[in-house]
Amino acid sequence: MLGRKVFAVSLTTPEGRSATSPLTATRRTGLVDQVIEQMRGAISRGDWPVDQRIPPEPELVSALGVGRNTVREAVRALSHAGLLDVRQGDGTFVRATSEISGALRRLYGTHLREVLEVRRALEVEGARMAATERTDAELADLTKALADRDNAIERQDLEGVLDADTRFHRQVVECSHNGLLIELYQGLTETFRASVASTLDGDGPGHKIEHSGLLNAIANRDPERAGTEAGGFFQELIDRYGQPGT
Question: Structure pTM?
Answer without folding.
Answer: 0.63
